[in-house]
Request: fold
Amino acid sequence: MQIARVAYEAYAYSKMGLLFGPVLHVPSEAPDLQATDTFCAHRPRCDVGYTGPTCEHFSCETRNWCSGHGQCTALEQCTCDDGWSSENCGTANCTGLNDCSNQGECVAPDSCYCYDGFDGSDCSQPQGDDLNAPVFNASHYYCTVSEKAKTGTSLLDVYATDADQGKNGAIHYELVPYGAEIVATSYLVIDSVSGRVTLLSPISRNLLTTHTLLVWVKAVDGGVPLKEAQAQLHIRVIDVNDHCPEFHSLDSGSMHFVNMSSEINTTVVVIEVTDDDFGDNGEIIISFAASTAGVVRNNFEVDATSGRISSLVSPLTVGSFPVVIVATDGASNPCSKQLLITIQVLPPDVEPQNLNRSRRQPQ
Ligand SMILES: [Ca+2]
Ligand SMILES: [Ca+2]
Ligand SMILES: [Ca+2]
Reply:
């Protein structure tokens, strides 16, 4: 908490005007200090209009950050890009289009969005009948993507046409969940004008219940009422081997007892292993390590799939045997994990059940 104390003292001194350097535009009240605060968390909230680690930079916060159409050149002062005006640069200029003839919205410089019933670049014309629905160039679109593909990766382009003119023939695209499969639309985004589908975020394959995402894509025209068409997107997600086998239930060095006179095929222990990948990447082969002693191999075997270790002969060789278990997945770039256990073969007069019980419940 030393850093926290220093940070707070710096804040307090700044309020008393005892610090030299840039003027700090911090608020009049001290910020709340939390027990787990770090220096960053102690950074004072800046007065409106200021930003930066010590609030030394001016901003155009109350000007909506210049609406993305200008530069903040002084405190709460925007210099607008060409075609934009007003204090916050949020007003587009459509004087070249007769200000949309007062029958539409100027949504960008020299770009009108006409109200229902009006059409044309300056919205001066009446909107005719919407005669035709959009038509996709395919009813199904397919693509494949790795679960490691990054945000912004382009997946495919959809395309539709509309035989009408003006607003009635102007198409925009939308993604629509396929029934209850809303998860697909959370990973994808479509450019409403170009129809390009891109990744909104990487797809975690092990969070999906199926390896193919299904989603509808709509093409919607600007008619009143509008007409639309639908096509189906099939996004096949390829699993990447990003998980290694993991051992469960057993600690490294755990000891397992079996009596030397046990029958052949007596279970000594079952090694539980999981792998969160899919297909071959999630398939697991369990084996003894290559270095396993011959006496272990002569007395025991491990089932590659179930992980069950059982006796091969009777009687068994008495002794304490360290055994390294290897779990390897089936990927082309396989991942392996190892676990050390000890198998102890007991003389005939000692019951392994009693030893296991005493280890689990020490008195
Ligand atoms: Ca149309
Ligand atoms: Ca794996
Ligand atoms: Ca995976």
